[in-house]
Please model this.
Amino acid sequence: MLLNFYKYQGTGNDFVIIDNRDLSFPKNKTQLVSFLCDRKFGVGADGLILLENDEATDFKMVYYNSDGKQSTMCGNGGRCIVAFAKHLELISDETSFEAVDGLHKAKIEGNVVSLQMQDVDSIIEKSNSLFLNTGSPHHVQAVTDVKNFDVRKEGERLRYGVYGKEGSNINFVQKIAENSFYVRTYERGVEDETLSCGTGVTAVALAMHHAGQANKDAVSITTPGGQLKVHFTKSETKEGYNEIWLTGAAQLVFKGEIDVEA
Model:
């Protein structure tokens, strides 16, 4: 089977994206997804995204981690599929789409995509970390020298040792200026550090505001792959946040075709 694909990246978080409106992609073939994401034998990506039709919105996003398994929400992937939908001329400058965690709205201007994330109802405080779900589960932990921190070793230990088989994404964060932080993330499903994680960046911004380390409703995040911004509103009636928007660049890297077994 000759498969047409597009490669997108959002702050270094990269994805194989396929137009699957005709439902021709064999979604039950885990090994095919992991092959396409393989950086030696396939296209190479942190995850694979299918764009499909949806009756109530402009399109549906189906997301797989690079291990080939369907996963929870991916923020950078959400921004990339919006850019892809614009490339296909399915949308103009605003859109709504369905993902695994529900409805999302987005805006696009040039290559900058702002994605509305799901509301966060609560943040769990632990002894030296915070835990919250921003469409995917995230552990947020402050460290003193994040650039030299062993993210893979410690991230793997926490991902399995603390959160068990289901696991959690693990974020290590250091404050670098007022309302500005540097973040490195170990992603479950990828089972390694990625250059950026959209739901992780969102989790860090909210966690740092909750902890009093940020004092504004707009937080700048630096990742190894680039810059992102998170805007939000503190809930007045509950311990949480709403109107959460993740903003950053999303770009087409290349497109092509690959011969795979159907």
About this structure: The chain has four helices and 17 strands. The chain has two domains: 2-115+250-259, 124-248. Residues 124-248 form a domain with the Diaminopimelate Epimerase; Chain A, domain 1 fold (CATH 3.10.310.10). The mean pLDDT is 96.
